[in-house]
Design brief:
CATH topology: SH3 type barrels
Order of helices and strands: HHEEEEEEH
Helix content: 25-40%
Number of helices: 3
Distance between the termini: 64 Å
CATH architecture: Roll
Radius of gyration: 23 Å
CATH superfamily: PRC-barrel domain
Mean pLDDT: 78
Structural class: alpha+beta
Protein name: PRC-barrel domain-containing protein
CATH class: Mainly Beta
Strand content: 25-35%
Strand order of the largest sheet: 4-3-2-1-6-5
Organism: Methylobacterium oxalidis
Number of domains: 1
Shape: globular
Keywords: Signal
Number of strands: 6
Largest sheet: 6 strands, mixed
Length: about 120
Protein backbone atom coordinates (compact mmCIF):
# COMPACT_ATOMS: atom_id res chain seq x y z
CA UNK A 1 0.00 0.00 0.00
CA UNK A 2 2.85 2.40 0.74
CA UNK A 3 4.64 1.80 -2.51
CA UNK A 4 1.98 3.31 -4.84
CA UNK A 5 1.75 6.47 -2.69
CA UNK A 6 5.53 6.91 -2.74
CA UNK A 7 5.65 6.31 -6.48
CA UNK A 8 2.92 8.88 -7.22
CA UNK A 9 4.67 11.39 -4.94
CA UNK A 10 7.93 10.87 -6.85
CA UNK A 11 6.18 11.24 -10.20
CA UNK A 12 4.45 14.44 -9.04
CA UNK A 13 7.75 15.88 -7.77
CA UNK A 14 9.52 15.02 -11.04
CA UNK A 15 6.73 16.64 -13.07
CA UNK A 16 6.90 19.78 -10.92
CA UNK A 17 10.67 20.04 -11.33
CA UNK A 18 10.46 19.40 -15.07
CA UNK A 19 7.71 22.00 -15.43
CA UNK A 20 9.72 24.57 -13.47
CA UNK A 21 12.83 23.94 -15.57
CA UNK A 22 10.91 24.09 -18.82
CA UNK A 23 8.90 27.13 -17.75
CA UNK A 24 11.90 29.35 -17.05
CA UNK A 25 12.28 30.42 -20.66
CA UNK A 26 8.63 30.24 -21.66
CA UNK A 27 6.65 33.47 -21.46
CA UNK A 28 3.67 33.52 -19.15
CA UNK A 29 0.46 35.50 -19.67
CA UNK A 30 1.57 37.87 -16.90
CA UNK A 31 4.92 38.53 -18.60
CA UNK A 32 3.21 38.98 -21.97
CA UNK A 33 0.82 41.49 -20.43
CA UNK A 34 3.66 43.44 -18.77
CA UNK A 35 5.61 43.51 -22.04
CA UNK A 36 2.52 44.65 -23.88
CA UNK A 37 1.97 47.45 -21.35
CA UNK A 38 5.59 48.64 -21.74
CA UNK A 39 5.23 48.62 -25.53
CA UNK A 40 2.03 50.66 -25.24
CA UNK A 41 3.76 53.13 -22.92
CA UNK A 42 6.61 53.54 -25.39
CA UNK A 43 4.15 54.11 -28.24
CA UNK A 44 2.18 56.65 -26.23
CA UNK A 45 5.34 58.65 -25.43
CA UNK A 46 6.46 58.79 -29.06
CA UNK A 47 4.20 61.71 -30.11
CA UNK A 48 5.33 63.67 -27.05
CA UNK A 49 9.08 63.02 -27.24
CA UNK A 50 9.72 62.21 -30.90
CA UNK A 51 11.63 64.86 -32.84
CA UNK A 52 12.35 67.02 -29.81
CA UNK A 53 15.81 68.40 -29.10
CA UNK A 54 17.66 67.07 -26.07
CA UNK A 55 20.01 69.34 -24.16
CA UNK A 56 22.56 68.60 -21.46
CA UNK A 57 24.05 70.81 -18.75
CA UNK A 58 25.03 74.28 -19.87
CA UNK A 59 22.77 74.24 -22.95
CA UNK A 60 24.87 71.60 -24.73
CA UNK A 61 22.84 70.19 -27.64
CA UNK A 62 22.94 66.39 -27.44
CA UNK A 63 20.67 65.60 -30.40
CA UNK A 64 17.09 64.77 -31.38
CA UNK A 65 14.87 62.05 -29.99
CA UNK A 66 14.37 59.54 -32.79
CA UNK A 67 12.06 57.05 -31.05
CA UNK A 68 11.09 55.54 -27.71
CA UNK A 69 11.76 51.85 -27.03
CA UNK A 70 11.59 49.37 -24.21
CA UNK A 71 15.01 48.50 -22.77
CA UNK A 72 16.37 44.98 -23.39
CA UNK A 73 15.62 43.99 -19.79
CA UNK A 74 12.01 45.12 -20.31
CA UNK A 75 11.86 47.32 -17.23
CA UNK A 76 12.65 50.81 -18.52
CA UNK A 77 11.61 53.02 -21.40
CA UNK A 78 14.54 54.37 -23.39
CA UNK A 79 14.60 57.45 -25.62
CA UNK A 80 16.73 56.72 -28.69
CA UNK A 81 18.61 59.93 -29.45
CA UNK A 82 20.51 60.75 -32.64
CA UNK A 83 23.67 62.13 -31.09
CA UNK A 84 25.33 65.15 -32.68
CA UNK A 85 28.44 64.41 -34.75
CA UNK A 86 30.84 66.36 -32.60
CA UNK A 87 29.69 64.31 -29.58
CA UNK A 88 30.49 61.03 -31.29
CA UNK A 89 27.48 60.62 -33.58
CA UNK A 90 25.26 57.60 -33.82
CA UNK A 91 22.28 56.53 -31.78
CA UNK A 92 22.38 56.46 -27.98
CA UNK A 93 19.79 55.31 -25.48
CA UNK A 94 18.80 57.60 -22.63
CA UNK A 95 16.45 56.19 -19.98
CA UNK A 96 13.24 58.24 -19.98
CA UNK A 97 13.32 58.73 -16.18
CA UNK A 98 16.60 60.69 -16.64
CA UNK A 99 14.87 63.21 -18.93
CA UNK A 100 13.24 66.36 -17.64
CA UNK A 101 11.22 68.98 -19.46
CA UNK A 102 12.37 72.59 -19.35
CA UNK A 103 9.92 74.77 -21.26
CA UNK A 104 9.50 73.10 -24.65
CA UNK A 105 12.88 71.39 -24.51
CA UNK A 106 14.07 68.13 -23.00
CA UNK A 107 17.05 68.20 -20.69
CA UNK A 108 19.31 65.67 -19.02
CA UNK A 109 22.25 65.84 -16.65
CA UNK A 110 25.61 65.28 -18.33
CA UNK A 111 28.79 66.83 -19.58
CA UNK A 112 30.37 66.65 -23.00
CA UNK A 113 32.70 63.86 -21.82
CA UNK A 114 29.91 61.79 -20.25
CA UNK A 115 27.79 62.07 -23.40
CA UNK A 116 30.71 61.08 -25.63
CA UNK A 117 31.31 58.09 -23.34
CA UNK A 118 27.74 56.78 -23.74
CA UNK A 119 27.81 53.55 -25.77
CA UNK A 120 26.09 53.64 -29.16
CA UNK A 121 23.09 51.39 -29.82
Amino acid sequence: MRKPVRRSACVAAAMTLAGAAAGQGAPTPLLNRADSMMQMSAASLMPTLGGRWLYADGGLVVGRVHEVRVSPDGNTLVAVVVRRRWLGGGLIGVPVPRLRQVGNDLSMAGTRQSIRAMPPL
